[in-house]
Design a protein that fits this description.
The protein is largely without helices or strands and 114 residues long. The protein contains 2 helices and 2 strands. A two-stranded antiparallel sheet has the order 1-2.
Length: 114
């Protein structure tokens, strides 16, 4: 599954930099595949965590364009209510090592598969 906002040309040339809140192409009709009510936004609870817990997050990439990842949560108990960026901005997750919120991707980590 690709969650790259539809690709560079879609995001920047057609959608003027906009991206769906879950990484979908902004131009796709709502609900988009990864939003509440979409193909994958079914409301399944797959884990429960307490505030301050550490989550292991895996991101699969096939190339590096540099930049960073940030992870956010939005309180939403309605599988039919599509979240927005304002809600996600309320809960920007810090990195476990205390270095901030951005996980920088500048090169392939040693031992990583290409």
């Amino acid at each position: 599954r690709e969650l790259n906002c539809g690709g560079y040309d879609k995001q920047w040339k057609e959608n003027k930099g906009k991206c769906g809140v879950c990484g979908d192409n902004y131009a796709n009709p709502q609900p988009r595949e990864n939003e509440a009510g979409g193909r994958y936004g079914k409301g399944y609870i797959v884990g429960n965590y307490e505030s301050g817990s550490v989550l292991d997050v895996w991101v699969e990439m096939n190339t590096i364009h540099r930049g960073w990842f940030e992870f956010r949560l939005c309180v939403n108990n309605d599988v039919h209510h599509i979240i927005n960026h304002e809600c996600l901005n309320e809960h920007l997750l810090p990195l476990a090592d205390g270095s901030g919120t951005r996980y920088s991707i500048q090169h392939w980590p040693e031992g990583a598969q290409h």
